[in-house]
Amino acid sequence: IDKNLSKQADTEEQIAALDRKLSKTQEKLDAKQAEIKKTEEEIAQLKKEIEALKERIAKREEVLTDRLKSLQSNGGNVSYLEVLLGAQDFGDFLDRATAVTTIMDQDKNIMDTHIAEKKELEEKKQQVEEKMAELKAQKKELEDLKAQLDSQKKEKKELLKKLEEQHDELHEHKMSLEEEEKVLRDQ
Q: Taking residues 89-97, what's their average pLDDT?
């Protein structure tokens, strides 16, 4: 009986250790699910930002196209030198120079912004691809954790079955001892 009780205690210890493992695995599983949710939210946000960038780029391309059409309809490229030299007096020259500078600055700003946003668009697309790869890896980890959890649950079930068998064995042994004792007493 003592031997059997000792076996049962060992099995109960194994079950307790397995319960701790199960708990840790479940925590990891929950953390991984939260991580996946966060990554999915980041991807959704990046996609929104990409759409906004695409819209701004498309609008700017329209402006640039209109500007180029305007330049072509005015006989090709506008000679800023002609504009400056066509001034009536020095005050007019300064006004024209300021206007030309402003136009050139605006054109440069439009182009700089356009180039920067196209670069940003490519970076965001790259980020989405990286996040998608990360998400795929996280989902694989999640599946592995679920498999680990299932395996641990199966192991626990087997240990519980073993413990039950040991209890039954002990109970039968005890009953047979009690019967033997009764027979001996009767004799």
A: 84
Phi-psi label, residue 76: left if phi above 0, alpha if psi -120 to 50, beta otherwise: left
Query: Per-residue pLDDT for 177 more than 70?
Result: yes
HSE of 62, CA atoms in CB hemisphere, 13 A: 6
Query: pLDDT tens digits for 36-82?
Result: 999 999 999 999 999 999 999 999 888 888 877 776 666 555 566 66
- For residues 85 and 157, give the distance between their C-alpha atoms in angstroms, rounded to a whole number: 95
CA distance 126 to 15: 47
Tokens of 9: 């205690």
Q: What is the pTM of this model?
A: 0.58
Sign of the dihedral defined by the CA atoms of residues 35, 40, 43, 48, in that order: negative
Residue 72 tokens, joined: 């072509």
Residue from 6, 40, 66, 43 nearest 142 by CA:
40
Distance, in Å, from the CA atom of 56 to the CA atom of 142, rounded to the nearest integer, reads: 38
Distances in Å between the alpha carbon of 81 and those of 32, 101, 110?
Answer: 65, 12, 22
